[in-house]
User: Fold these one by one.
Assistant:
Number 1:
Amino acid sequence: MTAAYAKCYGRVDREPLHKRHRFCGVSVHAKEMQFIDSRDEEVNGERDCMHHHNEKRATAPSSLPNDVVEEIFIRLPVKTLIRFKSLSKQWNLRIKSHSFAEKHLKMASSYQVNHPSLMLFFPSPITSTEIEFHPFCLEGRRPLSHTQLSFPLGFLGWIHYSRSCDGLFCIQSSKSICVVNPATRWFRYLPLSGYQILNPTYLPANLITAAAFVKAADYKLVWLYNSFPFPPNGVTTCEVFDFRANAWRYLTCTPSYRIYGCIYCEPESANGSVYWFTERNNNYKMDVIAFDIHTEKFRLLPKIHSSSDPDLNDHRSMCTLDDRLCILITTSILDKEFWRLKSSEDMWEKIYTINFLSTPLSWIGSESYWRPVTMWKKKKMLLSHPCSGNLVIYNLQTGSVRIIHSHTLCMPYFESLISNI
């Protein structure tokens, strides 16, 4: 030991030199070596313990029961789940499975009932290949992130966005058609339909019809339109796209009523059927044609007995409320009547009436162009006014109105993992 060390500890080392050791070029006492060795073992033991603790923390999630992990995951946003796929091979397989996607879809659908959200579409003003998708939550605090996608083939001429089907949209234009899931960024181009091939690139708005995106046992596109130029090809033509066959096919039995064409009157789907307005008949009334997506048969629905103004029939609109078809009708005194189709589909029932002139709606836009988008909690309704570009929430109980956005390209929406259809 050095003199300084001896002075510090109040003793002098008298052990022979042969019992001393060399440590990093310094003479060290044997007991000191035992102390150093013991401290090394202690430190190494602490490191091993910390390493074991970190390993335990890293593997903690996978030690949870599978059903608990799944119950947590089905409540998470799609963007978070996509990130989780890279953290664990087991998680990746679970999240990619079809059964998990279906469970996540069911949970998102139930959440939508009281916390509805929309998808706002923003096509690029510069190029025809880019579209921004902006989810917008009407109520609740669930975070939603927007997505910008580039579509190589672009969208020329007119463009139409279908209703959401399990978080998927069908984007149609005069010369291209694509199915997309904005949440997962997946999309797939489809072959052109006969309607797109035969029609010119640019059509007047009153001649445009669009395909309905629906799901029976499998997903389908149903495109009903007026035959052209005229019969003997039949009054209407219907094409159905099968995703498994990746091909369009024509139906032989189609309605003998011409379809009302309008860029704002897209077909509506509810309760396993697709619905279209017909052109005015001899009594200046518009009828409704239904198509069963399972049997692929058409039928004419019963008439609605209301005091609507025949001059305002062109401004009737459809929506889906609680998976039932509803029609908004403007009466001769400008009231807004909501008629719902009964589950038996043999009769209509009036469920709401809005006294238009006594509400702030009359200050925002003209009476003829208001269209229902969605309804929730049995008392709140989202209305769109395509001409003024306003989206408003109307309270059916209090009659109050709240403007939430100035945008017309919107659809009810919820996220899903469904892709690769």
Note: Residues 135 and 318 are 22 Å apart (CA to CA).
Number 2:
Amino acid sequence: MGYQMELLFAFFFEALKFTQAILVLTNPKNPIIVACMIYRWCVGGFIWVLKMHLGTLGFGERLCLCFPGRRKVNPKDNGVSDEQHDCKPPHAAATPTVQKVDNNDQSTEKSQQKQESTTQQSQVHAVKKQREFTYQELVKATNNFKRDRYLGEGGFGEVYKGNLENSNQVVAVKKLNKDGLQGNKEFQVEITMLSLMSHPNIVNLIGYCSESNQHLLVYEFMPLGSLEKHLHDPRPNMKPLDWNTRMKIAVGTAKGLDYLHNHCEPRIIYRDMKSANILLGEGYHPKISDLGLAKFGPLGDKSYISTRVMGTMGYCAPEYGYTGHLTIKSDTYSFGVVLLELITGRQALDDTKEGGQYLIEWAKPMLIDKRRYVKLADPSMKGEFMERWVRKAVEVALMCMDDDEEKRPDMSEVVDALDFVASLSDPVVNRNRNGLVVELDSSDDESDGLKEESGDERAKAIEEAKMWGKKYKNEAANSTPL
């Protein structure tokens, strides 16, 4: 009814405009023109009042045809295809926000609570505008993608080292492989995700190029390459990673994953945690890269999201592989595999064995007895570690890889536990600011072998690991400078 009335008045209004135009052409001094103009203003005002009235009757979505510039866009038409839609937040009304994380993570619980309270009161929209490069700019930067600039290849495509012409900044340029495992959707997702976040353990996206059929991403350059290279395919000039470096990489990676899970809104599930996606900067500072497969986590009462199974064999959580149900704890399992890789120096999936052998399967015989945990340690470290360090690190990896996802710890708890493990071997971190060694309960170190741990024993071990982290964190927070 309201819409038909609106059409009728719009018809008369347009007819009046036409009549006025004819009169102006035939006799511009005719007084009828003045009357028509006044009448037109009156009708226009009446239609505006009618439009406002119809809005109160539920016809507000249908704005007057006389004002096409103010017509509303169909809310279902968001300019994004169904396949691309999941690179946007699942709730359209809420804009994703993230909490910026400072490099100094050694703050007290009180200051953390204050920071969280401040963040809840006024969250900062951290959408970074990325630079858009032309294809020719990146051709020049990489010297036409010559092989001497080649860095490696992943699911997205080949990666080349480049130098930006104006700033001479060294960058890594990733070029989409049209026949690769990832495509335009992952390209858009990665730009979206990396535009929403800022963290010292997440790789920085500088910009992108999207010209016709050319899709490229430009990142900060990480000079030491990927963790996978150092562990499984080292160059002749690469030294084996020592224990302290491995724990530094583990802690930094855990912090990056904790940021995605607990400091982004909505929460982000990484979905592709593996050693190849952990890049190393100066001083072996780790950063998580390749967020093309990332998903926004479940909202409200939902505990998982259903999606096709993606990722890399050997890293996927079992429940995700069986059901397609993706949760935050799926990432925790994958991180546990990476931690076990760091400890053992072995690949997540050894494809040299017939049918392939998963790392956890290889490790099982040595996991029956805690006294045998040390046999898991990478031989390339040449025994330069203490058994206690290895035991604690293995226990953290096992609690992350628990078959029951509900029993896996939150990544914030993993960060605390690994901080403690790193403190055991680091002569600087191991001493608080008064110069006193921080001693924590280690009664379990001398325990006899545990024959096939029961569920209760595993739960106890997880709680103990959480306790180390909390106790260490409190000790570090309460220490005073010299």
Note: The CA atoms of residues 409 and 447 lie 23 Å apart.
